[in-house]
Design a protein that fits this description.
Helix content: over 70%
CATH superfamily of the largest domain: MetI-like
Strand content: under 5%
CATH architecture of the largest domain: Orthogonal Bundle
Largest sheet: none
Order of helices and strands: HHHHHHHHHHHHHH
Distance between the termini: 52 Å
Structural class: mainly alpha
Number of strands: 0
CATH topology of the largest domain: MetI-like fold
Length: 290
């Protein structure tokens, strides 16, 4: 019995040691990969607080000395960066409102309503995901140009009120997981279809709607091609377009360009920080339901 217990103890210690080794090696690999991925971000931030001489110094200065924190303030002095910020926040807010209205209504129709041809229409909508964005770019520009809406925000806002197939699919899959018994119980209590949609489905779909908000904000904040096509007035420029404008106007001020890039990263990071719990949870739930 003593030999058997000693053997079990050695086996347990061996499994524990193997588990510890796997954890340590796994975390070490992740830390190394994280450090590698952080190198470009660190270089951008370090360049943002350098002087022009330090930016082009050979060999490169990894740790700038002195640190020029005033570069972040100079960005707002050289170009109307504050206006670019407000313009992009306005577009992001308008697109979020448009997607929340259109995506939830269309997804609710596909998920909870029974009507002839529902599956066919849903497949047709999904098939549009295979159409490259560049195919519809020219016809859409011609349409807005004929309507006289170029150099305005309308071409960047109106498409959000028609929905996005990927977001509709995402919210529809989430709504289909909600038991239909809730709808039937509400109808028995005298609720209308709108009451079911507003008081039951929308609150239960909150994680999926948070995904819609985050995806829409990041897509609008990083969008460069559409503002470049439709906007010509510098007072209407977005952050991404403003950074490109700054790069063309001040080709040698790479430190200020990097400072502007750091400032442009702040809103998406803040949004992800406050929404990461629901965001990660919603993505994992959607993955399980798919």
């Amino acid at each position: 019995m003593t030999d058997l217990s000693a053997t079990r103890q050695r086996s347990w210690l061996g499994l524990r040691g193997l588990r510890i080794f796997n954890n340590v090696s796994g975390y070490t690999i992740l830390m190394v990969l994280s450090a590698l991925f952080m190198i470009p971000l660190y270089w951008m931030f370090s360049t943002a607080v350098k002087t022009p001489q330090q930016t082009f110094a050979i060999p490169p200065e990894v740790i700038p000395s002195p640190v020029e924190w005033k570069n972040f303030g100079r960005v707002f002095e050289e170009v109307p960066f504050g206006r670019f910020y407000l313009n992009t926040l306005f577009l992001a807010g308008a697109n979020i409102v448009g997607h929340l209205v259109s995506v939830t209504l269309v997804a609710y129709g596909f998920a909870r309503l029974r009507f002839p041809g529902r599956n066919v229409l849903f497949l047709i909508m999904l098939s549009t995901l295979m159409i490259p964005y560049q195919v519809t770019l020219v016809p859409r520009f011609v349409m807005f140009a004929k309507l006289g809406l170029t150099n305005t925000y309308w071409p960047l806002i109106l498409p959000a009120f028609t929905g996005t197939p990927f977001l509709i699919f995402l919210v529809r899959q989430y709504m289909m997981s909600i038991p239909f018994d809730l709808d039937e119980a509400a109808y028995i209590d005298g609720a209308t279809r709108f009451d079911v949609f507003w008081r039951i489905i929308i609150p239960l779909t909150r994680p999926a709607l948070m995904l819609v908000i985050v995806f829409t904000f990041i897509d609008v904040w990083n969008d460069f091609l559409q503002p470049l096509i439709y906007l010509h007035d510098p007072n209407l420029f977005t952050v991404s377009l403003g950074l490109s404008f700054f790069q063309g106007a001040r080709e040698t001020d790479w430190n200020l360009l990097m400072a502007g890039s750091v400032l442009a990263m702040i809103p998406p990071l803040v949004l992800f920080f406050f929404a990461q719990k629901q965001l990660i949870g919603g993505i994992s739930v959607e993955g399980l339901k798919g």
